[in-house]
Write a structure and sequence with these properties.
single chain, mainly alpha, three-stranded antiparallel β-sheet, 4 helices, elongated
Length: 128
């Protein structure tokens, strides 16, 4: 394993002991063994995160003709995540007030004190 500039790092005594034992079997130094384990762990975690991202992207596909209630709990969680993301995207791209004004309907809001405010299509505002 090639040597690069090292950065001092503290590790748990048990981890050090395991690295020392592994290093004697692999012909690495303890530092090289720890670095090797870190790289392997990083790759394993990257694959796991990639798989999780892919499952989240395709969570809607988990339903594919199945009833939500029949899914295992972890797949239900992924479907709910997908539904949340779809709802957030839909809400972000929807201007409900503009749609109501265009349809000639009042827009109801609350003021800072929690009082109902009606914004009428003609531009007038009614406080309640």
């Amino acid at each position: 394993m090639g040597s690069t500039a090292a950065t001092p790092t503290r590790v748990n005594k048990d981890v050090y002991a395991a690295a020392k034992a592994a290093a004697s079997l692999t012909g690495r130094t303890v530092a090289e063994q720890l670095s090797h384990w870190a790289k392997v762990g990083s790759e394993v975690e990257a694959i796991a995160l990639l798989e999780l991202r892919e499952r989240r992207r395709t969570a809607q596909g988990l339903l594919a003709g199945r009833d939500y209630d029949s899914l295992p709990a972890d797949e239900q969680a992924l479907v709910r995540t997908a539904w949340d993301q779809e709802m957030d995207a839909s809400l972000a791209s929807t201007d409900i007030a503009a749609d109501k004004r265009a349809a000639g309907q009042p827009v109801i809001t609350l003021d800072e004190d929690g009082n109902v405010v009606r914004h009428l299509p003609d531009g007038t505002v009614e406080q309640r």
